[in-house]
């Protein structure tokens, strides 16, 4: 696939974005030449500890913050008001006018959209139809979050950026939101860029993720691939100490056996060599980590 | 752009107290003040004021309220509230991705002008209504009331001059609100500017040139339109007001265009 075709296939392309806040010695580097491509039609997760640069990146995509360097492309076009109108965005805690109702918010934003969805349909889909005519000042955080998603959807976007969309939702609400996100991608073909601290949620919903650390990309790839890449081989053998000595730093005693750092493809060879050396193997398994383990290994281990 | 403008109008209509104190209180207070004044004159002198019975000319003179410092204070509160709302409620984050910053800022500016227009129209209407009511109540005591068509141009010019003065106020308040992200930081300097200009004008006294501040410039322009003052001073006033308008609007617009909204 050539560069142009690949660019057209991206919903959002972040190209060499650099952003720092403050001046001189007190300057804080929020994003450090970050390059990231979010493919169309997928749910893409954005992870990172506090201060990793996630919010800055989303604010740059939204046009709220100007990067020092680099550029953003949205659906194959340079980021500008016209291309941003094709995006739906929920940035951090949604802000609303307390004196307007949910319906009034959506109607107001629908009028600004090129191809708006019917407001009632959006209210129903986000589960706040019953509160449509109540002023937002009386809304709970969860209801505001739902309205925020409604605001993002009302313009019938081709891609949607959701920053912590399950914040303030109860467990049922989280399940509904998860289903809605899946539905948006699978049924409506909308690209979803999901920033979340809930790793379990990201693991369940996203096909591909990026992990940011100190404004740079620490890891990126398919969730399955990242989990596989960070997997470890566990063995329960006779004479674990001897095996540990034989394998050196690659082996680490744990859980009554040994964790061995080895590529998944090299496992059969390793087993064969141990058997050939007369070592009796009682149990052998490839242990896939969860996303939390991957996240912690990518964001903690390399910290200086 | 029209959707943004309508959204701004709608938001203000849904805040009735702000709409009243920011834009409608001036005509209301102006009317109350005139009733009290006329009442006092009637009680003390047993005659009805004013002598001027040309309704259009009287309405044109009533537009001088746009130069009143208390009116400026109230208008500044209304204008600053419109611009400050998005910082206060963190709502730039739902607007900025949907429209260009120039359009967002321009929509707010035009919404302010629309409500200021309404306010000036209400000042004129209330002035005319008072005349009619006074005529009905004291028909015997009033000389003939008239509507002179040639005064219509004067009224129109006076209206434009007042609107220009309030446009300058809007641009100044909008620029300071945008730069400081604070309502009070915009209202106080705008009020002080008007008050300060009046004090400077009093201190300096009659001059051959217009003091290059918005209030004296408006005064000179109004004097030229309503009382046939010197044309040179009138044109100078117009030029000074235009310069203030362009500079303040440019500062506000560029400030918002370049503003980092890392937090509202």
UniProtKB/TrEMBL annotation, chain A:
Record has Transport as a keyword: yes
Record key words, sorted: ATP-binding, Nucleotide-binding, Transport
Record has Isomerase as a keyword: no
Record-linked Gene3D superfamilies: P-loop containing nucleotide triphosphate hydrolases (3.40.50.300)
Molecular function terms, GO-annotated: ATP binding; ATP hydrolysis activity
Domain ABC transporter: 12-239
SMART domains linked: AAA (SM00382)
SUPFAM superfamilies: P-loop containing nucleoside triphosphate hydrolases (SSF52540)
PANTHER family from the UniProt entry: ABC TRANSPORTER, ATP-BINDING PROTEIN (PTHR43335)
Record-given protein name: ABC transporter-like protein
UniProtKB/TrEMBL annotation, chain B:
Organism name: Nitratireductor indicus C115
Annotated keywords: Membrane, Transmembrane, Transmembrane helix
Superkingdom assignment: Bacteria
UniProt protein name: ABC transporter permease
Transmembrane segments: 20-43, 63-85, 106-132, 152-176, 183-204, 232-257
């Amino acid at each position: 696939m050539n560069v142009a075709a690949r660019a057209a296939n991206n919903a959002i392309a972040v190209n060499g974005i650099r952003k720092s806040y403050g001046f001189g010695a007190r300057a804080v580097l929020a994003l450090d030449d970050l390059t990231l491509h979010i493919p169309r039609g997928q749910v893409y997760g954005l992870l990172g500890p506090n201060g990793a640069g996630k919010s800055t990146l989303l604010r740059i995509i939204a046009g709220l913050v100007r990067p020092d360097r680099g550029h953003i492309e949205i659906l194959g076009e340079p980021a500008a008001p016209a291309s941003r109108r094709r995006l739906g965005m929920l940035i951090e805690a949604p802000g609303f006018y307390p004196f307007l109702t949910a319906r009034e918010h959506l109607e107001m934003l629908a009028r600004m959209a090129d191809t708006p969805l019917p407001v009632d349909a959006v209210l129903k889909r986000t589960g706040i139809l019953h509160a449509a005519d109540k002023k937002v000042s009386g809304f709970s955080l969860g209801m505001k979050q739902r309205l925020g998603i409604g605001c993002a959807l009302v313009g019938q976007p081709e891609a949607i950026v959701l920053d912590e969309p399950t914040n303030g939702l109860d467990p049922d609400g989280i399940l509904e939101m998860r289903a809605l996100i899946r539905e948006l991608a699978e049924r409506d073909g909308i690209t979803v860029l999901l920033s979340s601290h809930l790793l379990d949620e990201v693991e369940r919903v996203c096909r591909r993720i990026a992990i940011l650390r100190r404004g740079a990309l620490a890891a990126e790839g398919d969730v399955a691939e990242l989990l596989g890449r960070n997997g470890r081989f566990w063995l329960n053998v006779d004479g674990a100490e001897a095996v540990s000595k034989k394998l050196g730093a690659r082996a680490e005693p744990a859980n009554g056996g040994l964790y061995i750092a080895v590529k998944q493809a090299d496992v059969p060879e390793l087993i064969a060599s141990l058997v050939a050396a007369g070592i009796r193997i009682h149990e052998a398994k490839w242990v896939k980590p969860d996303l939390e383990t991957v996240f912690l290994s990518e964001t903690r281990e390399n910290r200086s | 752009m029209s959707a943004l403008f309508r959204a701004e109008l709608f938001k203000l209509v849904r805040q009735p107290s702000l709409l009243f104190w920011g834009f409608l209180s001036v005509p209301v207070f102006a009317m109350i003040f005139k009733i009290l004044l006329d009442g006092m004159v009637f009680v003390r002198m047993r005659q009805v004021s004013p002598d001027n019975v040309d309704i259009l000319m009287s309405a044109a003179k009533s537009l001088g309220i746009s130069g009143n410092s208390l009116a400026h204070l109230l208008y500044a509160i209304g204008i600053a509230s419109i611009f400050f709302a998005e910082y206060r409620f963190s709502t730039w984050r739902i607007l900025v991705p949907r429209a260009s910053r120039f359009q967002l800022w321009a929509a707010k500016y035009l919404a302010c002008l629309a409500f200021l227009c309404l306010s000036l129209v209400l000042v004129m209407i209330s002035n005319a209504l008072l005349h009619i009511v006074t005529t009905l109540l004291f028909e015997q005591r009033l000389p003939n009331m008239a509507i002179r068509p040639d005064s219509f141009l004067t009224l129109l010019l006076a209206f434009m001059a007042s609107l220009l003065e309030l446009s300058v106020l809007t641009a100044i308040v909008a620029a300071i609100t945008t730069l400081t992200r604070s309502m009070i930081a915009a209202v106080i300097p705008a009020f002080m500017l008007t008050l300060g200009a009046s004090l400077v004008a009093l201190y300096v006294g009659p001059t051959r040139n217009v003091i290059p501040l918005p209030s004296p410039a408006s005064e000179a322009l109004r004097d030229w339109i309503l009382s046939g003052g010197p044309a040179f001073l009138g044109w100078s006033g117009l030029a000074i007001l235009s310069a203030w308008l362009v500079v303040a609007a440019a500062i506000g617009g560029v400030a918002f265009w370049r503003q980092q909204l890392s937090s509202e």
